[in-house]
Write the structure tokens for this entry.
Amino acid sequence: MAKRKPHEEQELPFVALMDTMTNVVGVLIIVLVMVGISIASAVKKILSDLPPVTVEEYQKMLQVVKDLPPPPADPKQIEEDKKIAEQKLKKAIEDLKTIDSSSLESQMKFMDLESFNKQLADSRKLRETQKVEVDKLIAEVERLKALLDQTPIFKPEPPTFVRLPNPRPFPENPNETRILVAKQGVLFLNEKTFIEPILGGLDKIKSQFEYKEVKIDPFMKMLTGIYGTPQAAQQAWPEIAPFVNTFQMDQVALAHKALATAKLPATKQVLAALGDISIVTRTTPTAVATAIVGVVSGDLTKWTALDPSRDPTKPIISATSSGAKINFGWGAKIVEVKATAKDIVDYFVKDLGGLDGIKNLSRNKVIYDAFKLQAVLERAAASPMMGGSSYTFKPAVKQGTVAVQLALTPKAGGGETLDQIRTEGSAYQRLMRQIQADPKGVAIYQVMPDAFETYHEARRIADQIGVAATWEFLAKLDLTVNVRGYEVQRFAQVTTSTATGGTAVRITAPKRSLD
């Protein structure tokens, strides 16, 4: 087999290659020239379309360019900031997933629309209700304004004389005249002048008011309360009745009961001695009886507590026990007695009760029959001799009081009106001059609640005359005068601390003073 001939590569001629390159370059140059011509033509067109610019306008444009904000940040920096912002957003989303939304949910529940609508409806109803009330109030205000427009202008009354008080000491043993001030005028009452004629008539027949034959009837209620039963009171009556003229019967009965309860003698002789001792010790028979019962039981303090001495360092009464004996002292006199009930009672009845200055001391004390005294005073009240008085009176016996009382009633025309007391020479002004002339004369004005205008005028006149005076409030025209100097039985039990052997505590009334 014949061998094959090797392949022979054919090369392009160099000249042909160069021609091809030249053609390409030429085409490109032509294209560039055409593009340049096109651009030049466009630029020329743009320049030809632009308006002419002066130098000043050009300078302004340059200034505007300078004032332009700086160009935005670098794109790379913007990209980095974007990545950082995305990371923060992702982190915020993760945080929101972990937030406790319970409080927010409760708030959302509170913000329930239906609840708000209900509250709104309630508020509207309340507003309507209040609007009705406000309308009523506005109508009432308008009505009151109308009434106020019709109200006459107030014109005050003329000024009233008012004096400033000038406190001064009250005179000792004053001669008091009571001026009763009512709205219509004044009434006069000099208690001393009024009562003295009555007492003068009573003194002439004083012995007629003593008990002659005493009955238990007026005392039965009181004695039943002390002894417990009417039978016990009736049984004790013979022993206590003889003392009706000298001591209050409730005190005698309490003393008798204290002795009898302690199984001690309660005879007339013992009660008489106790009465005499009560006078010198300035206590009561009950207090002395209670002290004796205490001594018998071994308690000497109740007896020594009745010491009448006003100097604690110099006692009159002393009592000390020594074994089966007791040493009793009265002043400088000391008596030793056995500590037995009989000897103790004998000491008080015979030794102490028999001393001069104590024995029969109660005989000088008199208590009168209130009903006999009342009967005589009733006859005196009806007597024509009382016609000249400005008052009528009615005697009364009241339980618990130790004096018969006279209830006074002013007679018609007995006083003077406000116009009359202003008149020179009136009875009121004459009375004021009499009081002013008496060194111990005092006018005591007793003023009714509605009579202060009258009082001011009456007091102005008294001050002009120079009368020593004071005033007090008088709730009602209730005038009573005690018949002094005639102690009567009170027919009621009065319990005091001295009745059981204690010391009476007295609260003294405030001292009166002139004003």
